[in-house]
Write a structure and sequence with these properties.
Elements: E1 4-6, H1 8-21, H2 30-36, H3 45-59, E2 63-65, H4 66-77, H5 82-100, H6 103-111, H7 114-133, E3 136-140, E4 143-148, H8 164-178, E5 184-188, E6 197-202
Antiparallel strand pairs: 1-2, 3-4, 4-6, 5-6
Helix pairs in contact: 1-3, 1-4, 1-5, 5-8, 6-7, 7-8
Length: about 210
């Protein structure tokens, strides 16, 4: 079992918690935030400090102990809104991974017709999945398959809710790169006693003129 994960993983989890817990409304909510900051995880000084730490680690390409990231996922898994947080965290990590792709490459993918854009997009998803999520990404016919053997969110929430993190990340990456409108199936899951968590995404790209 690998001992570390990319800092982007715990960072995205905490950013999702914070985005859910922080009240909307701007300045008029400052008093509310001060009163309730210790009652909601996302408003705590600890979370704010950890977000800064993970951002710094990401810039320095420093890895984070996997048990630390899993601990954050377990805290999320105890919350009644865990499903929404894991889904939001997946969207956040996908957007961060997308921004790591050079602007030139992103522009080329967006401008090319779908049959040319998809192979380029696949390479970016494969590279990002391996580097940031510890995932293996492959093509199977017209689908992309993302597999994770050491899931940070495995066993952290009831009914495999933690798996939504990786599912959401894959969905958002395909949406950002090729405007994919295909379905995603969770074809294998460690929560079902299998050796790997695996998702299959159909990516029938809907290209729009730029």
């Amino acid at each position: 079992m690998p001992g570390t994960v990319n800092a982007i993983v715990p960072l995205s989890l905490l950013e999702a918690v914070r985005s859910v817990d922080i009240p909307e409304g701007g300045d008029e909510e400052v008093e509310y935030v001060q009163e309730h900051r210790n009652k909601r995880l996302g408003l705590s000084d600890t979370v704010i400090a950890q977000i800064r730490r993970y951002k710094d680690a990401l810039k320095r390409n420093q890895q984070i102990p996997i048990h630390e990231a899993s601990g954050i996922a377990r805290l999320i898994g105890r919350r009644p809104d865990a499903e929404g947080i894991f889904t939001r965290a997946g969207t956040i990590v996908a957007n961060r991974m997308y921004q790591m792709i050079s602007s030139t490459t992103r522009q080329i993918i967006h401008l090319l017709p779908g049959f040319l854009a998809r192979p380029l997009a696949f390479r970016q998803v494969k590279r990002a999945g391996e580097k940031y999520l510890g995932a293996k990404v492959r093509r199977v016919g017209a689908s992309i398959v993302l597999g994770v053997t050491e899931s940070v969110t495995y066993g952290t929430a009831p009914k495999a809710i933690g798996c939504l993190y990786y599912e959401s990340a894959l969905r958002e990456m395909l949406k950002l790169l090729v405007s994919s409108g295909g379905m995603i199936d969770h074809v294998h899951c460690r929560e079902r006693g299998e050796d790997i968590c695996e998702w299959r995404a159909e990516w029938r790209a809907v290209k729009t003129s730029q």
